[in-house]
Task: structure prediction
Amino acid sequence: MKESWIKLKKGRERSLLRRHPWVMSGAVEGTSGEVESGRTVEILSSSGEWLGRGAYSAESQIRARVWTFEREEAVDAAFFRRRVGACLARRRCVVPSGTEGYRLVHGEADGLPGCIVDIYGDVAVCQFLSAGAEHWREELTSAVREALPSLCGIYERSDTEARGREGLAPRCGLLWGKEPPELLTIHEDGLALQVDVRRGHKTGYYLDQRENRAVRDFYRGAEVLNCFCYTGGFGLRAAQCGAKHVTQVDISANALELARRNAALNHLPDEQFTYEKADVFQLLRKFRDMGRSFDVVILDPPKFADTHFQLEKAARGYKDINLLGAKLTRPGGILMTYSCSGAMTPDLFQKVVGDAARDAHRDAFLLRELAQAPDHPISLNFPEGRYLTGLELFLP
Ligand code: SAH
Result:
């Protein structure tokens, strides 16, 4: 079969030489052979030097994603077995025993661009988000099965916007094995959680916040406000750590229903919780006007910015909720605040939150800088993979 290749414009090979896995459409000078979405192509510099081997994507701004920078390495079923095997070996170092929910494959950072695999006990949930991942879906599914022989089923949740940018329709359903139950239960460091892998956000749960939901002494005896609570995570942990009362806030009735069920599952008394189905932006204002305050305020909003272009608007959103959050935090209390907008760098987020605290006439001291859990690795070759940043602040 004739080799297919894409050639880069002069001067556009720099990022690949630094092992960044993306070739942007504007960097491509020309193509040869059969270049169609998903197909593996050789990537050459303008002078014809071999740079990498990757998946072509005809529709995406990201015209190719590199599978390998090793010239001798073929991209075939064995390649995917090796890569997924390496992912598992790395997870063994960072996922504590007793934790049944973790990310096995984190796309670009794991050398498998566009491929996400989350594990919930004996169920794996996959997302194939690029033309290349889509092309190799069967090999990837088999590789996951082989890496984890104890799995009962593999389910697909390729229903994110990223697929559209690759010219792919959403796709969900069973890939292999048994249908997962309506709700499956996982344990996260002593906390039992029900997860809806079919309809839940992402692949069902926010595994990336696992370490930030860890045990903290400051929850003991505290009144806690958990904003954007989803299925309850942070608030359940706070209650388990002896919080006096936890207010769980989300705009989604389904999320709150699951939060309630999760409290019961962990034998946490009903009286320990209040559930508010509300828009956080409005509720925080209402609480401010009522003069309410809390010992711990948690703000974990959805992504406000997808790209740099939305950053200014996103910054205003973060400033707004953090200003209100700081006002509602009692003197001597804790504000835990997050951004999962990749474009919002840790530095910038800290500035925005600092401005918000000042406007609320509060000093803020950084107790901990927080990030995505290490089973969502950040490759230094791919800084874009850093998307979750957080601050645990003490407000005197
Ligand atoms: N903290 C959670 C994850 C939060 S995800 C965890 O640890 O699992 C963001 C949540 O914000 C979603 O559940 C979504 O329903 C909710 N949400 C989005 N916009 C909202 C708004 N304006 N007011 C309240 N909740 C909102």
User: Anything to note?
Assistant: Residues 206, 209, 228-231, 233-234, 250-252, 255, 279-281, 300, 302 surround S-adenosyl-L-homocysteine (CB under 6 Å). The chain has three domains: 5-68, 77-177, 206-395. The domain at 77-177 is CATH 3.30.750.80 (Transcription Regulator spoIIAA).
